[in-house]
Design a protein that fits this description.
This protein is α/β, with parallel strands linked by helices and about 200 residues long. The chain is about 30% helix and about 30% strand. It has six helices and nine strands. β1, α3 and β2 form a beta-alpha-beta unit.
């Protein structure tokens, strides 16, 4: 069932234009990010992990005074993202990519749940470690208690999703010297979960 990041990226390459089109709801995740921004202590450096091609979260962070970077594993997503934001620095990768600095704000909206289940803990720890003290991380997962993985069709392509389960997420956050400031199943009855995490030490 597990899909490699390269296979996942190739499938996203084929449908990247959807998130760049007028058909995509550009308000997706914005209300939740505004909540996270209200918790943030300062502006500074930010990165959109799994930025995709819509640019909406980058636009929001730029409007709040952040210096923003983007990161994605889909080459076509990045190609479209660079056209939309030619002055933003974009990086290719997620699982093996290493942060070169620490950030005041990290967004990983609807992205890291595509990471293979056996690599998700390492990626979440990496995100937490990339935060500055009092920095904010917002990310999504599944509103379930147990770890699991599934592959479902999306616009004709198979997309893989995996989740660690809420107890595991909270344990990793605590072990990474962070605290969960907000946890919400924001699309009930769909099991869409988002968390706002803050670095405490």
């Amino acid at each position: 069932m597990t899909m490699t990041p390269s296979d996942q990226a190739e499938n996203y390459n084929k449908i990247a234009s959807h998130w760049n089109s007028d058909k995509f709801n550009r308000q997706n995740g914005i209300k939740q990010h505004k909540k996270a921004l209200r918790i943030a202590k300062t502006t500074g450096n930010a990165i959109d992990v799994g930025c995709g091609s819509s640019g909406r979260i980058i636009d929001l962070l730029l409007a709040h005074g952040y210096s923003v970077e983007g990161l994605d594993y889909s080459a076509e997503m990045l190609n479209l993202a660079r056209k939309r934001h030619p002055n933003v620095n974009f990086h290719h990768g997620i699982c093996q990519w290493q942060f070169q600095q620490k950030y005041d704000f990290i967004s990983a909206w609807d992205s890291i749940w595509h990471v293979p289940l056996n690599q998700q803990k390492a990626v979440l720890v990496k995100l937490c470690e990339a935060l500055k003290n009092e920095g904010i991380l917002i990310f999504t997962s599944g509103a379930v208690d147990e770890a699991g993985e599934v592959t479902n069709p999306c616009f004709g392509q198979d997309l893989y999703h995996a989740v660690l389960g809420i107890p595991n997420l909270l344990r990793i956050i605590d072990e990474s010297s962070c605290v969960c400031r907000h946890l919400e199943n924001d699309d009930w009855p769909e099991r869409h979960l988002y968390l706002i995490v803050q670095k405490t030490a």
